Input
Amino acid sequence: MSDSETTAKPAGDTRDLIILGGGLVGMTLALAAAKAGITSHVIDRADPADLVAEGADGRASAISTASWNLFANIGLGERLAPLGCAIDSIAVTDGMKPGQIDFTPKAGDGSLGKMFFNRDLRLALFEAAKDEPHIAWHVKTEAVRRDRGPHGVEVELSDGRLLRASLLVAAEGRQSPTRDEAGFSMAKWDYKHRAMVTALFHEKPHNGTAWEIFYPAGPFALLPLLDDAQGRHRSALVWTVAEKDAAGAIAMTDAMFINEVAARMHGVLGGIELAAPRMSYPLKFHHAAKVIDQRLAVIGDAAHGMHPIAGQGLNLGLRDVGALVEVLTDGMRLGLEPGDAQLLARYEKWRSLDSFMVMSVTDSLTRLFGIPGKLPSAARRLGMGAVQRMPTLKRFFMDEARGMSGKLPELLQG
Output
């Protein structure tokens, strides 16, 4: 199913959901819903072949324990398990000065999550969706009209086809046109930073350790990846630079870029070289004041976008998926339709507090570690030393990293 002609259903095909956006969050929703017997149209303007082409996207994502449970519960565990690298510990340091925190779970507690290349996640999702009868997948097309009324929703595609459903779900990412068309008010600000993203080969094994090194200009993260087929050690890099310095960083030759990265690594992984294309994107915060409207639910980056400092962006979107599917399944079991206002209100109540708390903590960390000067650095290291000596507090932070805190949807439980 590689193009809109082969995946199209007849005009007017009615399903439970119309999902706008077939990325990591949108397609996970479609598959999770399908496992619960909920049918969907998935609409994406991209060509899946472009998204999973070798070398097209070198980005990687940290998948929390809760998010891994979701993937396993919708049947992707066997496919994805060999492709993920366990995060066995996290080292947090202020500029590699004394006083770092080491988050290492006790024996038997499992890892703090797994690192996956985004391409591998997409391949697994797309392969599963291709053979799922509950999913009608429409690619290389987009919605040009969205009508939501008391009795259902209707979407007209750019090729003229009409699709109908009970509920419209916006999973279009940060620039969601559906969210904006619905007039949702947004809390948003620009961090005036840019994330430089790639993957590195390195001389020494990472031993499953993720490094979060805080510099006044922004955090510098090294995240463990599986060795490649030749046995070369790899880690993902997310290097935050001030927007005023970003043009210079982007213009660097690969050799200059590697020298700058190596200077910030202090030799923790030995010699390094590039293992993936370099990419960059601006860092901004946005949070929708509400995530529902008449027959509309907003999920993932369309609802909330945050700094990548804690690696929780995708995980927060996957929690949206688990909550929405659970709410819809419970309601449909009682004879309610997916677009029922009571169900949507329950989804919003469930997700609003959790997403706000995660985003608030992430934003506070970004600001705290971004204060320059010797005194703030000394204060931060003093605080980190205190956390290092308090097992209960460390346990709290590790549970947050795993995504196992708060009221979890069933799909995200073990």
About this structure: The longest strand covers residues 186-202. Confidence is low (pLDDT under 50) at residues 1-10. The chain has one domain: 4-187+284-412.
